[in-house]
Amino acid sequence: MKWLLAVLSAALVTAGTAVALWMVKAPPVEIVKTAGVAGGAVVALYALWLNDRKHLLEAEKVADERFARSVEMLGNEADQVRVGAMHALVWLANSERRYTQTVLDVLCAYLRRPFHHPSWDGNAADPDTVFTEVSPEIQREQQVRRTAQRLISDLLSWGDKKKEYYDLDLTGAALEYLRLEGRRVNRFIARRAHFYGITEFRRLHVRRTTLFSGATFHGRLSLPEAHFEGGIAFTEVTFEQRVDFRGAKVGTFLALTDPAPPEQRGELEVLEGTAMRTLHEGWALAGSPQPSGPRLENQVEQDDGGRADVVARDGDGLGDGNVPAQPDEVHAVGLDGEGLRDEGDPQPEGHEVKK
């Protein structure tokens, strides 16, 4: 069908060129030659486009095959193969931007796999200071996981680069010395995660919800100049070391926990209009730290399917309490006594419904 269209187009161009030359009384020989060249040019251009399209489809097929092979190699027993697979995925994400979010999801899924290092039992605040006998398999796996953390940081947008925002889901992950300084994140989910060593979120910008529900920060948490634009939840979070709030800001909503961090440096600025259920004592807050604006239970989001949802499912079997809802029949749900499933992204969106 496309070839027929090309032939018809060439015929029309040829005829049009011939008529135009005939009207200016060009010699018959010139009319035939020029019209033929014009029609041939149309066919040639179409052939070039078709060839480029073929190469593009072949390149996409090769990229898909490379992605599948790399993901498969993440299950290899050899640690160097797993590290190579991660680098191959990141290379693919940098070459084909459509893969960036998928590759980040794969790396996050790898970090969500169960893992425990004996050094965490000795000094969870700074595991690298503990020297203990561990099996080579655990030691190598630790290095693979740290590579995954570094590659996640490398993939995220930062500095003067193009401002792109991607989701991170580290639910239940065990993380060591996680560093996301200056990175841009769309939605940051780290429920029930364990952060070992110093966690560095300096100048981190999260555009949507940040959820640390039930997480434990075994080491220091550094948040200088971080901006949690879409709100942050520290519900039932355990802080074992100092938290640095200097220059940090939060908007949309703020959910805190008791007790407050044992040591705090600076103050967390609560932007005007930020929704808070209650004001917890002991937290170093500045700005507008009083419960104000819409209550948290009135903050909902609606997705395209009309589903009431807090965030995407964790994939751990616990779910998020999703319930069906129609776009025009969404009712606010009270949040009292909901445990770790209480914080949604309270920022109203035009296409998401949150419970």
TrEMBL record:
Positions of the UniProt region annotated as Disordered: 286-355
Any Pfam family hit: Pentapeptide_3
Keyword Metal-binding recorded: no
Biased composition (Basic and acidic residues): 304-316, 338-355
Keyword Signal set for record: yes
InterPro entries per record: 5peptide_repeat
Signal sequence, start to end: 1-20
UniProt keywords, alphabetically: Signal
UniProt name for this protein: Pentapeptide repeat-containing protein
